[in-house]
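Deliverable D5.2: sample structural annotation.
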Amino acid sequence: MAFSGKTTVALNLIKLFPRTVPDAHIPINPKTKDQDWDCPEAFDMDAMVSAIQSARRQLEGKGSIEFRTSYASQWANPAADVDRMLPTEALNALRNMVLQKLHISSAEEMPFSLVLVDGILLFYDDFDESSTPGAECDAGVFICAQYKTLKQRREARSGYVTKEGIWNDPPGYFDNVVWPNFVKYHCKLIAANPEAEGGKHASASLGHFGNVAICSSDAPFAHTLEACVESIINQWNCRQ
C-alpha cells in the first residue's frame, strides 16, 4: 500500500538481517485521464520477476553476489530520516531478539539470506500466479494504514523522481486514483482481513493472508518493525 511505511520498514530490516540482497510507460486512468502509477500495468512485472529469480540463483551458488548492509531509497527516504524512526537502543533490542529466536550468537551466523522486495501491488489479487513478483516470494509482509493516515502522508509528499523528471499528484489524485485502486486490486486480501481496508488498527499485527503477514504502520514504528521481524523468523522456522 502506498505511504504505509513499507520502505522505511524495509530499510530498517536491512539493519537487522545483514545478509540482504538489494533490490515507462505509465497507463492512463480512464476516469481522471491522469497517469496511473498505482495499478499493476504501471510496473514491469516480468522484469521484477526476472530480478528476483536472478537473486535467488545467485544465493543458491549459481552466480556471484554482493551483500548490502545499507540501501538508500533514491527519492523518499534519506538515511537520516530512516535512522530517526528507531532509537539505537530499540534497534539493538530487536537485534538481540533476532539472535535469540534464531538461536545464534552473532549476525555472522545468520542461517538465511533475504531478498527484500519493496513496493506496492506485490500482493494484488492475482499475485499467486506464476508470472507475478509476489509468487516468487517465500513470505510477504503487507503493510497498511488507515485511510486518513495514508492520505495525509501522500498529500504531504512534494513529488516523485521519475525517469522524465518530477511527478506531482494532481488535485484529488489520492481519492480518485490511489485509494480506489488499492481497494480494487486487493479485494481478496481485504475480504480475508477487513481491517486492511483503512479501519482503525489497534495493533501492529493484523493477521495473515496465506504466507503474507498483514501489519499496520498506525502502531508505533518499533511495533510494526517487530511484527515484520516476527513474520520473517516464523516463515523461516516453518521451512525447517
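Annotation notes: The chain has eight helices and seven strands. Confidence is low (pLDDT under 50) at residues 68-75.
The annotation will be released with the project's public dataset once the embargo ends.
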